[in-house]
Amino acid sequence: SQTIHQWPATLVQPVGSPLSLECTVEGTSNPNLYWYRQAAGRGLQLLFYSVGIGQISSEVPQNLSASRPQDRQFILSSKKLLLSDSGFYLCAWSVQSRDTQYFGPGTRLTVL
Amino acid sequence: AQSVAQPEDQVNVAEGNPLTVKCTYSVSGNPYLFWYVQYPNRGLQFLLKYITGDNLVKGSYGFEAEFNKSQTSFHLKKPSALVSDSALYFCAVYSGSARQLTFGSGTQLTVLP
Q1: A102, B46: Cβ pair inside 8 Å?
Q2: From the CB of residue B19, how many other CB atoms can be counted at a distance below 10 Å?
Q3: pLDDT by residue (tens digit) across B33-57?
Q4: Most exposed residue of A19, B11, B77, B112, measured as fewest CB within 10 angstroms of its CB?
Q5: Phi, psi dihedrals of residue A85, rounded to the nearest 5°
Q6: Choosing among B39, B90, B95, B101, which should be mutated to test the A contact, i.e. which has the most A CBs within 10 A?
Q7: Which residue from B99, B44, B1 is spatially nearest to A51, judged by alpha carbons?
Q8: With bands split at pLDDT 50, 70 and 90, how would you rate the model's confidence at A61?
Q9: Which residues make Cβ contacts (< 8 Å) with residue A103, sequence separation at least 6?
């Protein structure tokens, strides 16, 4: 069966510090991968998605970037965090774009 | 452009009563429709989906949803609510033209004992 991991589970970082969040998927090959941000416990904002190694599409211009160095690894990064980067970050995978997305447990990021 | 509306931010229901969480959508082309549930500080869990076929879709934990093409709705239902059903529920739609899943704003369901 497939599983998706995210770490760390929680993170508190000062403004201006770098960020690296990692997501890995097991039990499937060549998945579509997604990064979402959820602010204030509500709506989901799609940040990035990837259909293959090195292929990243950005949905919202911002302070963040994403990379996919391996087939089942998706990394969310920032060089300098802003207060507005605080939120709950969710990684998800699907077989194809139209298929069910399966979500990881999330990372709670607080920028102080 | 595709969109999803969840008109109720909050739904309260007594335990044992039927529950409905509403969702309407707008897409060009045939929709793929999904329901997810989120418990506090957790990721979203898939409940059910509609792609084609029978308009009544059955999913996990006793939930079901009815696809209504004329009303462009996909309401989530359960015959008898449990306190443990209290959570945040998201409706989502995918269409070929947009190529991405669009989520509604979420509905907080509270089941009162």
Answers
A1: yes
A2: 21
A3: 999 999 998 999 999 999 988 899 9
A4: B112
A5: -80, -10
A6: B101
A7: B99
A8: low
A9: A4, A90, A91, A92, B36, B43, B44, B45
